[in-house]
Amino acid sequence: MATLNFNRRRFLQYMASGALVAALPESAFTQDYKLNQTPNSAFKADVEIALTAQVTNIPILTGANTRVFKYTGKLLKGPANTLKELPSYLGPVLNFEQGQKVRIFFYNQIPEACVTHWHGMHVPQIMDGHPMYAIDQGAQYVYEFEVRNPAGTNWYHSHTHEVTARQVYQGLAGLITITDEAERKLELPKDEYDIPLIIQDRTFTADNQLHYALSMHQRMQGFLGDTILANGQPNPAIPVKTRAYRLRILNGSNARIYKLGWSDDSPLTAIGTDGGLLEKPQNFPYVMLAPGERLELWADFSGRKPGSELALQTLPYQGFSMDMGRGGMRGGRGGMGMMGDESAQGKEDTIVRFAISEQVSDSPKLPDTLVPMHRFTEKDVTNPDRVVPITIGMHRMTFNLNNRTFDMLDYTNQEKIPVNTLQRIRISNANPGMGGGMGGGMRGGRGGGMMGMGMMMAQPHPIHLHGQQFQILSRKPAYGDNTYAAIKDGFINNGWKDTVLVMPGEEVEIIKPFTDYTGLFLYHCHNLEHEDMGMMRNFFVS
Questions:
Q1: In terms of CB atoms within 10 Å, which of 142, 160, 235, 488 comes out highest?
Q2: In the β-sheet with 499-502, what is the strand arrangement from edge to edge?
Q3: Residues 90, 106: Cα–Cα separation, whole Å
Q4: Whole-number average pLDDT of the chain
């Protein structure tokens, strides 16, 4: 693993190349690269937390404990409900309120460098968890920020250069909830009726240890485990009463995309997305949830009989997987992607079972409206003549963005964004090809699963943008086949987002604000193997 302690020579090289300019404070580049080791006395924190990344052993499967990386937390100051432990390898749920000033003392006790990213939070560059701020074992980093986000569900996870996928896979992730006054007025289900649900897939060895070894195929499609866990547990059953619940769902997997649906085919009632609550509840036959995305559901178990169960499943769909032996991409029976590969994208499985355990007579009513939302249009964009491109490509068997892979402090002219502006961004997943020259395109075979040679590396990519949440302006698939038709009704396009799934052949336009903070803010694929491969870039906001 490459060291993350930049020395003065490296800093001067970046300055000479023009890559840095004024993106970072000079204090960020001392010879030992020490930064934010002590609290800022001028920052008056309402909440203080000690958060430690450490190595420990946790029971997950029956038998031997599993060695994991785990965030542990201790509340030093603030409301008693700020931290909620989950009985698993996952970090504590951090419960914040809009307007709180939060100080987090992050201690790294794992035997390698680490940095923590506050995914979905609107915070300054120096607090965002950019990989340039990774600290070595035994070091401390002090995060200080005001909670500016509205009520919603975010998360935190490792974001260390080239090892994000492995560190998250080994356990470094946790949920963040935010509340505000507008949400409290809605009287949504709370306390025991507000259930976090973190979905991940893992593979275990015979002695219950996490297996993470990447073949070329797994690097290219992303690592897919053969066991789905909910809140760190396999096949869990959650007891519920005959009333309404709020489910906060995070796809914390490295690469797996879930097609979520109820086992009885009843619709999913969505009340929130990545960036907070929707304007009004919306029903879906299923919801596609890519790595990094969040979904809030209103789950009403009223009228169900005690002793019965309702399961949340991932439904089968035509997965996109490379068939390395055939030089193309093929969907197997049941949407398995690779026939005989039980861990393949698009397989059907049960995520969690809700066991109806008690009959009650009272239940909150689903609100007709939730929170107001100003919908951006092209007329709101600061410079309507400019469209910022994010083009998904490939060169020498490596996915890239805008024909470039990640370089720690690098950005181009088209990645320069004026602060306090509203930008229109076009994300294109048209044809990564092979080294830019396979030609062809996409042709639909039986079931829409066969691909031409030019698209043999075509995959869905969940694109995540750091900083503020954005709105989806439009989705334009470049082709119509059974594969896309079977998933298109599961996209939630009218809420605040920080991650959007872009399918092969698709073009997605978004509108994103860049306000308050200057510096380098990442955008990347949230297929974590792709991110570590270099499918990540910087926006320089100035």
A1: 160
A2: 416-417, 536-541, 519-525, 461-465, 499-502
A3: 16
A4: 88
| Residue 320 pLDDT class (50, 70, 90 cuts) | low
Q: What are 216-244's pLDDT values in tens digits? A: 888 999 999 999 999 999 999 999 999 99
Range of the domain at 59: 8-184
Tokens of 336: 């398995």
pLDDT at 20 over 50: no
Strands 93-97, 173-179: pairing is parallel
Q: Are residues 399 and 480 located together in one domain of the fold?
A: yes
With respect to residue 366, please indicate whether it lies within any of the assigned structural domains: no
The DSSP secondary structure of 176-226, one letter per residue, reads EEEE-HHHHHHT---GGGEEEEEEEEE-B-TTSPBP----HHHHHH----S
How many other β-carbons are positioned within 10 Å of the β-carbon of residue 191? 6
Residue 396 CB neighbour total at 10 angstroms: 9
List the beta strands (DSSP E) in 396-505.
Answer: 398-401, 416-417, 421-429, 461-465, 471-477, 499-502
Domain edge (last residue) among 156, 184, 212? 184
Domain limit, last residue, from 184, 206, 221: 184
Q: Are residues 155 and 203 in the same domain?
A: no
Residues paired with 103 in a beta bridge: 48, 144
pTM score, two decimals? 0.90
Identify whether 370 is part of a domain.
Answer: no
pLDDT digits (tens, 9 = 90+) for 43-52: 999 999 999 9
* DSSP three-state, residue 265: coil
